[in-house]
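[step 3/7] inverse_fold.run input=structure_tokens len=375
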């Protein structure tokens, strides 16, 4: 779908009707609007464009099932705002969205025949454009796909890129993912080298960005709106900013695979747990554990002891017995007794620095896989 095509249609319709026009998707998101100068507007239009969505108190008119099923041009006259003409856009009985025009200089009862004809023609012209929204976003943008997949893609000197990876929890993921991609493009796709693709049940948005905090806040605002509109859990993970967008893409996907649902977060906020998870995956086939560690883990599993937790706490707190024992809610003397038993039972010598490193890696990765300790 080309937002530019829909915007051009909105401009043409606004000129024909004589009032500002907005094009909505089925969830009430503003996906295009006219920019003909000099036409009167009100707070509902202004707030809808700024917020990318119809204000909640007016959504009832967009969700009215009788309106959605109708092919007629309707008059919507709500006290306190400018009156509007509205028409649903459908194809093969599928509701695709709607077109709304402020109507201040035409007859409304009955509605002006010329305005009705213009709105009817606009609905017919919008149908194929809105149908195209069902196809994966970014499919016709080789530049966006190259930015996301080809590390040798040439970018402007000094540019840095962020990539947002999004997933949803939906029984109809493809349709909702495309709608989410359109919302992201509508919000962030107005700059060079920006756009979305949908692949492997994931939306990927790339854009040139230096402002990590500002992008994070804006993305969280979009995520909340998407959840409210689509009625599903939406999760955003952000990689970068990086000079190469392919690096930011990897970071975003790593984070997306490591976090829970319904949040917006960044690679930088999750660098340590994500790196540990990646290291664990990479080393999963290597026999890192020395025999003493394997025996200790086997003893814990069979006897219900907590020797591994004791050793890991000691290494995590850099051999500070007071801090390590407190982390396990143990008396320091009990903690020291356990360490002596570890040495007596398993021959594990923690005095050597290299041994401590290998033991820490073995325990941290193994217990992480077993779910004994948080990532």
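[step 3/7] decode complete -> sequence:
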């Amino acid at each position: 779908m080309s937002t530019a095509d829909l915007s051009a249609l909105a401009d043409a319709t606004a000129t024909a009707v004589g009032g500002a026009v907005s094009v909505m998707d089925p969830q009430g998101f503003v996906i295009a609007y006219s920019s003909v100068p000099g036409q009167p507007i009100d707070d509902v239009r202004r707030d809808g464009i700024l917020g990318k969505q119809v204000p909640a108190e007016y959504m009832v008119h967009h969700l009215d099932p009788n309106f959605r099923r109708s092919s007629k041009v309707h008059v919507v006259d709500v006290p306190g705002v400018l009156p509007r003409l509205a028409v649903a856009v459908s194809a093969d009985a599928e509701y695709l969205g709607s077109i709304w025009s402020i109507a201040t200089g035409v007859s409304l009862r009955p509605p002006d025949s010329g305005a009705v004809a213009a709105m009817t023609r606009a609905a017919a012209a919008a149908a194929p454009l809105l149908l195209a929204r069902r196809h994966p976003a970014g499919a016709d943008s080789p530049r966006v796909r190259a930015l996301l997949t080809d590390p040798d893609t040439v970018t402007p000197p000094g540019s840095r890129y962020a990539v947002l990876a999004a997933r949803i929890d939906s029984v109809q993921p493809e349709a909702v993912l495309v709608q989410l991609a359109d919302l992201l493009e509508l919000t962030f796709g107005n700059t060079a080298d920006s756009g979305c693709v949908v692949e492997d049940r994931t939306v990927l948005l790339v854009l040139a960005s230096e402002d990590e905090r500002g992008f994070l806040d804006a993305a969280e605002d979009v995520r909340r709106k998407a959840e409210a509109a689509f009625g599903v859990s939406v999760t955003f993970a952000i990689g970068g900013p990086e000079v190469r967008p392919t690096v930011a893409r990897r970071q975003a996907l790593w984070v997306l695979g490591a976090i829970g649902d319904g949040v917006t977060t960044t690679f930088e906020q999750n660098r340590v747990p994500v790196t540990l998870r990646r290291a664990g995956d990479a080393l999963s086939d290597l026999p890192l554990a020395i025999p003493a560690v394997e025996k200790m883990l086997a003893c814990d599993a069979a006897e219900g002891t907590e020797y591994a937790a004791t050793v890991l706490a000691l290494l995590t707190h850099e051999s500070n017995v007071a801090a390590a024992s407190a982390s396990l809610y143990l008396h320091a003397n009990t903690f020291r007794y356990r360490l002596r038993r570890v040495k007596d039972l398993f021959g594990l010598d923690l005095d050597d620095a290299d041994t401590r490193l290998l033991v820490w890696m073995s325990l941290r990765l193994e217990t992480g896989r077993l779910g004994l300790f948080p990532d």
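[step 4/7] annotate
The CA atoms of residues 289 and 325 lie 24 Å apart.
The chain has a mean pLDDT of 84.
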